[in-house]
Write a structure and sequence with these properties.
Layout: E1 3-8, H1 12-27, E2 33-39, E3 43-45, E4 59-61, H2 63-68, E5 72-75, E6 77-82, E7 87-91, E8 97-101, E9 104-107, E10 111-113, H3 121-124, H4 131-143, E11 155-159, H5 163-180, E12 187-191, H6 203-216, E13 218-221, E14 226-230, E15 233-236, E16 241-243, E17 246-249, E18 253-255, E19 272-273, E20 279-280, E21 283-288, E22 293-294, H7 308-326, E23 340-344, E24 350-354, E25 359-363, H8 364-378, H9 386-392
Parallel strand pairs: 1-2, 1-9, 2-5, 9-21, 11-12, 11-17, 12-13, 19-22
Antiparallel strand pairs: 3-4, 6-7, 7-8, 10-18, 14-15, 15-16, 20-21, 23-24, 24-25
InterPro entries: FAD/NAD-bd_sf, FAD/NAD-binding_dom, NDH-2
GO molecular function, one term: NADH dehydrogenase activity
Domain FAD/NAD(P)-binding: 4-313
Length: 400
Amino acid sequence: MKKHILIVGSGFSGMWAAVSAARLAEQENATDLQISVLAPAAELRVRPRFYEEQVSAFVAPLHDLFAELNIAFIPGSAENIDSSNKTVWYRDTHGSAVAATYDRLVLATGSQTRRPPIAGLADHAFDIDQLESAQVFEKHLDSLVSLPASAARNTVVVCGGGFTGIELATELPARLRARFGNNTDTKVIVVERGTVIGGRYSDALRSTIEAASNELGVEWRLNSEIDAIDASGVTLKNGERIAALTVVWTAGVQAHPLSEQIDGERDTQGRLKVNDSLQIPAHPAVYATGDMAHAKTDEVGNTALMTCQHAIQLGKFAGHNAAASLLNVEPYPYRQVNYVTCLDLGAWGAVYTEGWEQEVKSVRDEAKKIKIAITNELIYPPAADRAVAFAAADPLAKFV
């Protein structure tokens, strides 16, 4: 009887976990190892690009890749994990509850935007967290053209000044001009509870973000929090009212709620704390990866962030180690010492940094070329070619 690795999720981490597991299975000539991916669709949604225009295009099909590597695809949405009986219950495309058993489980269901109980947030704020919600936001921007010009129509409030908020805010001036024309006064306002722009980043990176914001006309409301959101704008906790027909929530993410069904220690973002092999200590047959995993990247105290940069490598290690545990092969301890950031800053350009200290290495057009290379090529799935895919899936190969 074949041993079964079940990977839940087809995002960056899930996709690479499947390819990496298949790679080791071929190296070990393990014909009795079955690798399956359970997800709503056999596709990789390129989430880091959802702040851009034409978001529907940012989907990469995985059918051919999975077929080439003998990876089974199970269409459905996981709902319940029974770790005692090594079973995942999922809802199939017909709405029926179906059980899938496993010998090793890889949790790669990612993360989602955290939505606190703010008045009107659920009813009146958009987000670009998932493909569907980003599509709704794009259609909303298109619909504004048919409305009479007003300060509220021409204003977008971005709630949250993290990476997603910054990339969206700096992209929006061009997106609004494309709809309203160059002669229309528009406003993009970032509401950030921190006291400085990019407070979590290095001085050099913060200065670059501030310079780009100033040049693009992006305004910041620092040391501010949202009190309420309604159909015509937002009210801040300090009493300030901002009239806006468009409010986008980008403040904070948390691990997929499926993680709550596994006994284990979690961090403040709901990620499961894992050992060096990415196993959950209380359940060694279960591996967490990508945005589901709280994993140390090095020996000096850094941990993986909720970024595709870390998700890709986490996936490669998780898939390899899950297969290794069934094939009597030594696992690879997850390490990802190199860390870079490349932040898109709209028409201004971009900024590229290296190291956890975020040393700025390039800006503007030079950094924009790096950003385009990363988001348009590097993070996409490999070709449906066995040799190419397996070479790319080597956990020990340099990614950045």
